[in-house]
Amino acid sequence: MAGGASKITFIFLVAFAITIPSLEAGIGNYDEYIREQEVEAHEIALESYVPDPINITDEFNVHVNRALREGLKDEANSTRRQLKQKYRGPCLALNPIDRCWRCKSNWAKNRFRLAKCVKGFGRKAVGGVDGKIYTVTDPSDEDPINPKPGTLRYGVLQKEPLWIIFARSMVIKLNFELLVASDKTIDGRGAHVVIKDGAGITMQFANNIIIHGLHIRKIKSVEGGMIRDSWNHVGIRTRADGDAISVFGSSNIWIDHISLSDCEDGLVDVIQGSTGITISNCHMTKHNDVMLFGASDTYKDDKIMQITVAFNHFGQGLIQRMPRCRWGFFHVINNDYTHWQMYAIGGSSEPTILSQGNRFIAPNNHAAKEVTHRSYAAPAVWEKWQWRSENDLFMNGAKFVESGPPIGNLPFNKGFLMKPRRGMHASRLTRFSGALNCKVGKPC
After folding, report:
1. What is the pTM of this model?
2. For the segment 39-70, what is each residue's pLDDT rounded down to a tens digit?
3. Is 321 a catalytic residue?
4. What cofactors does the UniProt entry give for this protein (predicted)?
5. Pick the catalytic residue: 111, 217, 321, 324?
6. Would you state the pLDDT for residue 60?
7. CATH no. of 41-80+87-127+167-429
8. Which of 3, 151, 310, 368 lies most in the core, judged by the most C-beta atoms within 10 Å?
């Protein structure tokens, strides 16, 4: 009996150890299929990890400078340049991602070109470029197990690569968490697509996904249950947290030109060993916990996490976590921080943060002037973390407290303006952040 009891205890402990991460993922039953997905996703993450991240940041900086120089020439030729007014002049693309595709009038006939435009750590994300175009014609979301053809849920669950577009403008209320399978692009260009008042978008143990051109707001925590998470698997999900976009154990993800606001939990959460991520050209407003990169101070596998945060506008009504980081390497470049109530960039568990060419406008509250936040650790601990600021612009008393030694030598080629653009350019680089009003046959 004693031996039998010990065996039962051992099985319980193993089961409990497996359940801990699954609870965080919303997985109700960590079955054999999910375990196989996890192993495969981890192998892809290790392949996506860059041993020397400075190479990626240097490459990114080259593209930023080239695009801005060319874009400023276009802006100088524009007859309407008032930044405080809604821009109605000719197409301007002032950062390298936008310059790759935005001002081409045939973008709708060549949607796949977008896959060539990603920069930073998410550079390998090409989404559904190798597949067919799937058109969402039905905004409903009634059946989480056998979704109707024509719905967004049906498209994101298919086995093959797909480039998903929308037949018309629509509002989609996701009644259940939307789990996106690998090799997909969700492309909202040409329609006003709003996801609101229901569940959000989740990438779990997935690879190679692009999410572009959506409005996502008022996402809520919703009940779980039996939900299809791939073309050949249905599993039990626990209650969803209320994140707009959640990346869990996934790699090679690009989130671009998304307008995000007012959700129950986070706007963008990246956790559980995810890596190879670029978050760019997004406009974020009216939210508390904006972005969480790494959810646990004990999950050291997040050391492989590498994320580029570029050309985003952190706007009105934001409080904190832009982002809040753990363990990995985070390149925060040429973003415009015009609002925060507590702090902009925080972290714990010795993350490496390279802040370049951002504009930080502090609130009028004298207790919230500091951009950085490390109250989770004592100064004797965090002073060794590598948090560096280069060419940032600080306004209204904003201050960035650096720590640790410089991050690499950053060997720039002086003949090609390799240094990142200074923070004074951040407002231009982020000028067209958020979902764009793209019209077929015209530049965006």
Report:
1. 0.87
2. 888 888 888 888 777 776 666 665 565 655 55
3. yes
4. Ca(2+)
5. 321
6. 63
7. 2.160.20.10
8. 310
